[in-house]
């Protein structure tokens, strides 16, 4: 993993009105990140950079954007357009790929990509659409294999980074088996994961989000951590499961593990992985000055 620059949304009055408390969170989070990396605050309409910032292909060195057009939370058409225009202004050379998918529905390492399967990606599962989507993802990421996991019924957000995350070559998975109606879905997902990566070590994380499973509230979702080349930043929520999640990740990480208080900001729908975009240092000469 090469050294990275970490991008965050710069707090302003508009963002603070939408996400009260973000300015205070930003100050503390930035200071923790800057112990390990250069941080670039960007002027953007929204804070969830993982979802709409472009992907960087390490093979060709280019940036690729997917079509960002969600219909949940405060994402009305005019707001989505503002986000797309802001990203285009920062990355004018990024190639727009005709695929409607949020960055939060993608987790990857160098050779493997996992996504939740949803009709809006495949145009209601028209013949050949899955293969088309995979080719576009491979254009953005370089050579890789792609696995599609079933989503939970009624899940409109469909972000896989709340369910699982790579830590090096290991897969950390939220253990939601305490919910009887989810146990069959978890089993099905694990079967696909094991068939796709038969030698992968799967480690279970506690899940502190024990109610309103399909709400936007991300408190208790520990899979939404951020691994960089120098550290692992793990959300903490002031919940009984915090210590266990941090301990598990420390046991399996080969670098410093830093707890980040996300108890307030996560109520709006995400944690440290959702809030960040990391890029190779040399890939952003126009932004890092």
Uncertain spans, ≥5 residues at pLDDT below 50? none
Instruction: Give the integer mean of the pLDDT values.
Output: 91
Named CATH architecture: 5-stranded Propeller
Structural class: alpha/beta
Shape: globular
Order of helices and strands: EHHEHEEHEEEHHEEEHEEEHEHE
- What CATH first level would be assigned? Alpha Beta
Main beta-sheet annotation: 3 strands, mixed
Helix content: 25-40%
Gyration radius, rounded: 18 Å
Classify the beta-strand content into a percent band: 15-25%
Distinct helical segment count: 9
Question: What is the CATH topology assignment?
Answer: L-arginine/glycine Amidinotransferase, Chain A
Distance between the termini: 23 Å
The number of domains is 1
Quick summary of this structure?
By secondary structure, the protein is of the alpha/beta class. It has helices at 13-18, 22-33, 49-52, 77-90, 119-122, 129-141, 180-196, 242-252, 272-275, and strands at 4-9, 38-42, 55-56, 63-67, 95-100, 107-108, 112-117, 145-150, 164-167, 170-174, 202-205, 226-227, 232-236, 257-261, 277-280. The chain has a three-stranded mixed beta sheet. Strands 3-4-5 form a three-stranded mixed beta sheet, with helices on one face.
